[in-house]
Amino acid sequence: MNWYLAVLKKYAVFSGRARRKEYWFFALFNLIISFVLGFIDGLVGTFSLEAGIGLLGGVYALAVLLPGIAVSVRRLHDTGRTGWWLLIALVPLIGAIVLLVFMLLDSKPGSNQYGDNPKGAEAPEQPAL
Asked: Residue 83: beta bridge partners?
């Protein structure tokens, strides 16, 4: 839960880097909360079949849209990519797969142009030849 709250505290921070753990815990809690809100929308009768979303789910989705984009950009920064790579998701199927692979990749060791490694570990020393 702390990882989820940490993302919300950085509501619109697009600079810096985000670990895989931060990104995926945020995604997990979003999924759980969305299911619960969808269930509540169904019980209360605020779910719209035409729209495919309920009132509570829609309000929640709008509330976490900006932090979701921000943590995705920071996650791409952690892999050494610019946040503009998010736009590849607009390419049907292939874009989503490429973006998923990027989000699963490990951090680039050491600092990069987007900041220090959030894991706190610097690049390992290279042995002398």
From this structure: none
Q: What share of the chain is helix, strand, coil (3-state, %, to 5)?
A: 60, 5, 35
Domain region containing 76: 2-104
129 domain-assigned: no
Per-residue pLDDT of the chain (129 residues; tens, 9 = 90+): 788 888 999 999 999 999 999 999 999 999 999 999 989 998 998 888 888 888 999 999 999 999 999 999 999 999 999 999 999 999 999 999 999 999 999 988 888 888 888 887 544 554 555
**Which residues, 6+ apart, have CB-to-CB distance to 15 below 8 Å?**
74, 77, 114, 115
Specify if 118 maps to a domain: no
Q: Where are the beta strands (DSSP E) in 3-129?
A: 47-48, 53-54
- On whether the CB atoms of residues 3 and 26 are closer than 8 A, the answer is yes
